[in-house]
Amino acid sequence: MIKELAATGARLRPGTADDAVGGIVPAQVASPDSVEQAAALLAAAHALGLRTVFRGAGTKLAWGSPPQACDLLLETVAMDRVLDHAAGDLVVQVQAGVPMARLSGTLGGADQELAVESPVPGGTVGGMLGSGVAGPRRMLHGTARDLLIGVTMVLADGTVARSGGRVVKNVAGYDLGKLLTGSYGTLGLIAEATFRLHPKPAATAYVTATARDPGHAAELLQAVFGSQTAPSAIELDLPPGGEPELAVLLEGTPRGVQRRAGDVGKLLGTDAQDIEAPLWWNRLPGGDTLLELRSWPKTLGRVLTAVSELAASAEVKAVLRGSAGVGHFRIGVSGEPAAQAHFVGELRSALGALDGGVTVTDAPDAVRGLVDVWGPVPGLELMRRVKDRFDPGWLLAPGRFFGRQGDGLGQQGDGSGRESVGGDG
Amino acid sequence: MQDLATLVPRLRAIAGDEHVITDEVRRRTYESDGLTYHAEVPGVVVLPGSAEQVAAIVRLCADEGVPWVPRGSGTGLSAGALPRADGVLLVTSRMRRILEIDVPNRCAVVEPGVFNLDVTKAAAPSGYYYAPDPSSQQVCSVGGNIAENSGGAHCLKYGFTVNHVLGLEVVTPDGEIVRLGGGPAGAPGYDLIGAFVGSEGTLGVVTKITVRLTRQPEQVRTMLAAFDDIEAGGAAVGAIIGAGVLPAAIEMMDALAIEAAEAAVACEYPAGAGAVLVVELDGPAAEVEREYAAAEKLCRESGAWEIRVADDPAQRALIWKGRKSAFAAVGRISPAYIVQDGVVPRTALSEVLRRIDELSAESGIRVANVFHAGDGNLHPLVLFDDAEPGAGERAEIVSGKILDLCIEHGGSITGEHGVGVDKSRYMPRMFGQEDLDTMQLLRCAFDPEGLCNPGKVFPTPRLCGEVPGVNRGVHPLVESGQAEQF
Fold first, then answer.
1. CATH class for domain A289-380?
2. Which of A9, B4, B241, B378 would bridge with B371, disulfide CB 3.0–4.6 Å?
């Protein structure tokens, strides 16, 4: 096995405990430095039947269900070149292993930015794409999939394929970049990516306000929605037992931002505005277990109430924060494993009734064994068929995705999220 | 048609007698979409009234191995809805209900046959609109927009259809009704909405669509700037974008396109202009004022000798009148024409336009240029006289060479019209065989039998083959069939 992998020219070393993915130590860790090396590695791994997991900086490797096996860990750290920053076209092409922070520095030199931020510092472009993670400005700019315009991927058998291109406006062929974004490395390696960029705003302001209660927070959100102030983000933080705090980000020209921040302040009943973000902005909420909650903006009040009440009754500590303007939140949960699992089940049930959903992003093994990580997944059967076609040998991170059958028609929230269907086999 | 004859009574049972068209004269009205030089009379036309009917029709086609083609309003410009003589044309135009305008959730739920502009009309009283605005928006359907990932003049700032779809109900090629996505915050699992939107009707047909509604901007300002030539106009575009201003739209027309628009709608663009630029800025008033001032200054510095401003809808409509009528207007100066749809990086605009000029001079075929300058999306109109033998073929050659220019400069063969039948032969110029084969994997996942809009997008459809058996059972619930893991 080592001989075949080494023949690809990629840097190779035996896996150590530090490389473990979901408790599984990979036999080998390979660091290709090019698409060609990555393709040769995957072709060799395919021939050997090795189960392969991709890693960037490894900051989100614990997210999702743990893979059932990991013979080879393919890390992208040596694929760390910014290939082309076409500033005049507001486009950048990078290798997957480029750290987000370095990319931000490079683009900042031209007063440009990739308008997606990650709440997990230290990650790479590939990790951001693979996990589909995004931050507050998803409200204005969407997530990575909305900014990705081209991708070079390597399939499980080493096939190199491109989709999209280097221009923003392009409808030639299927958009496989979107399919791979958020696929947790189960369909193929994102080796290179091309993004649309935005000019960096000349000025920013954050307007913050504390709501009296969940209902009030929902009213404030709707007031900002109704305005024509064009915020880039509307974020919310709900500390355990505390009052919800809203923060609205405005970006633009200095005078424009000043006037708009004043308008938002009036709507929120505050004159608290700052050029710095609140401390909790774009940060994960901490805790043992990390949940992702998706909801409709109209249900904000009921969502906040449900989180507070269910946390209290389950006797867990829950911190919620995220994008109120979109209805996407992360919740950090701490407490006894059984209590946390109970909370997840109750919350999933409550959100299901609101046409929302809850997934478990990361959790200690003790909690993971007691919960259904993904919950209902619309279109699951189609996803399985896509997986079958792209990776017929199920060699890429097998087991990362998990869901129950019969969830394809949107019967969300049958309240059955409590039963133990998890575990990693 | 012999095979289809046995299908007809069953289609009638599903959709009702009056919604199944077999009469040849009536079938002929569906023989092409907006690209009329591709035509094929459909074997049978059926107009279902509900998702359940759509699913039943598709299931019937799947059972009988009959190819079928989905069609919305039929305004597409790539023959993506070209029917099959041996197949069923499934037309969504009866499914035309706006089911919900949900202001607190900033979304609308519509059936696929709803006209694009009708979404905006329904949302307007609440202060919202539907951002994607293809130029056929008065009659094109939202379902068709989903298939084509339609753009429009304002996608420079607001993105394409795919950026505005929150949820879909689709009927897959095996006749299942499946919900994809879940809301503004997305849904767990693969981004099947991202894969489905823009798949040109080859992965299934939508039966319900949840779209994002966008708050109307506080202010809209539109400017018309006249230049001596395209190069000066192009320089202004580069300067505006380079200054960090992101207009809602930047459109350009060259002298020939202006001449045509003038002849057709008397838009009274500045006389003697070699190029005009339409720049629209929108957003909070405080921002628009500053951006407008910057854009105006940059236009003047780039050689604009006349600038007109529109601040109200009537004035704005006047400026847009010439631009929006440009395609049809070309009919006034040429008996026939091909509308091309290529994309180049914005910084390559001047170079590519010069090369198009050379192509035109060498071939003696006139080319009028109308384009979305902000995102490098060219719509060269290749003019010819269809009464002249061989003229169409010569125009087709020039049109193809323009696409080669786009590819050579790192661009695309289509920015918004789609590949359809018309451009499938150009796909291998832009993508390698492995790229196309990999795209086919997605097709095979959705439509292994290849019955759903066959012959579109890909030049050489391949057989999908069986997926080899895989040992996936490790978890007890997986093995017992109660859950699956992948």
1. alpha beta
2. B378
